[in-house]
Design goal:
Layout lengths: L1 E6 L29 E5 L4 E4 L5 H8 L6 E3 L5 H4 L5 H8 L3 E5 L1 H10 L16 E5 L4 E3 L2 E10 L2 E8 L2 E4 L7 H7 L4 E5 L12 H11 L3 E5 L7 H7 L4 E3 L5 E3 L1
C-alpha cells in the first residue's frame, strides 16, 4: 500500500496571505504547503482522505486517475472545499463515489454542497456521490477502513486506520477506546500545528507524548503551520519522527 501526502498545511495554506515570515518567504519547497489531505492506494483500490481547497492541483501533481471513495475527517472548509472536483471522477466511473464520515460530517456536507444532493436541471455537471454514515469498520475494495472517533476541540471527528497505517489530524483529544484502536500501528500520521499548545490541535510536545505511548515504527507530522520550518523542526525531532511535505509518498 502507498500513501501520498497531497497537502500538509493548515487551513491558511503556506505561504499565508500577507505574511512575510521566514517560512512563508522560504525558497525550500518543503515549506510550501497546500491544505491537508492524503491519497491511499494499492494495486486495486484508490481512496482519498479529505478533499482540500487545492485538490484539483494536488490530483494533477500526484496523477490520480481514479477515486473509489473519500473518507472525510470533518466538514471544515480546508478539508472539504475540493469536493466539486470529484465530479470528474464520478463521470469517469459512470457511477457515484461513496463518501464516508460521521453523522455530523455527512449532515454538514449536505448543507454546504446542497446543489450536489438535490434534483437540478440537466447540464452543467455536479459530483455524483453516495454519502454513508459509518461507525464501525467497513470495506472499500481491497481495504478495510476503521473510523476512529477523536475530538477537534469539542467537535467529534474521525481519524482513520487502514491496516498498519493510521491518519490522525485536527485533534487535541483522543478517547481511551480510540487510543486502543491505534495500538500496533506501524506508520502514524499526526496533525501538529506548532510548538505552543493549541485549543483544538496537537502541538509538538503533545504529539511526541502520544508517539511515546503508541511506539509506531515511524511517525509523520502534517497539518503544519508557518510557525514550523521544515528543516529546523526535523533536526529537533527524535529518530523515527519527521515532518511530512507536499508530494511525499511512502510505502506502508
Amino acid at each position: 500500500m502507498k500513501v501520498t501526502f497531497l497537502g500538509t498545511g493548515t487551513s491558511h495554506g503556506i505561504p499565508v496571505l500577507t505574511c512575510g515570515c521566514p517560512v512563508c518567504t522560504s525558497t525550500n519547497s518543503k515549506n510550501q504547503r497546500t491544505r491537508c489531505s492524503i491519497w491511499i492506494e494499492d494495486a486495486a483500490t484508490s481512496v482519498l482522505v479529505d478533499t482540500a481547497h487545492e485538490f484539483r492541483l494536488q490530483a494533477l501533481r500526484a496523477n490520480i486517475q481514479d477515486v473509489d471513495a473519500v473518507l472525510y475527517t470533518h466538514c471544515h472548509a480546508d478539508h472539504v472545499f475540493g469536493f466539486d472536483d470529484l465530479r470528474v471522477y464520478s463521470h469517469h466511473r459512470h457511477k457515484e463515489i461513496p463518501v464516508y464520515g460521521n453523522q455530523q460530517t455527512i449532515d454538514e456536507l449536505h448543507q454546504v454542497f446542497s446543489y450536489a444532493f438535490r434534483q437540478t436541471q440537466r447540464g452543467g455537471g455536479k459530483p455524483q456521490v453516495r454519502p454513508r454514515v459509518v461507525e464501525a469498520p467497513f470495506k472499500v475494495g481491497t481495504m478495510t477502513i476503521i473510523p476512529i472517533p477523536v475530538f477537534h476541540g469539542i467537535l467529534p471527528i474521525y481519524a482513520y486506520r487502514v491496516g498498519s497505517f493510521a491518519y490522525v489530524t485536527d485533534t487535541n483529544r483522543i478517547p481511551a477506546d480510540s487510543l486502543d484502536c491505534l495500538r500496533g500501528v506501524d506508520t502514524l500520521v499526526l496533525g501538529v500545528v506548532r510548538y505552543e499548545p493549541h485549543s483544538t490541535h496537537m502541538h509538538i510536545d503533545m504529539a511526541l507524548e502520544l508517539v511515546e505511548r503508541l511506539r509506531p515504527r515511524r511517525t509523520y507530522f502534517t497539518h503544519i503551520s508557518h510557525l514550523l520550518e521544515h528543516e529546523d523542526t526535523n533536526a529537533r525531532l527524535p529518530q523515527g519522527v519527521e515532518m511530512a511535505y507536499d508530494g511525499l509518498t511512502i510505502d506502508v
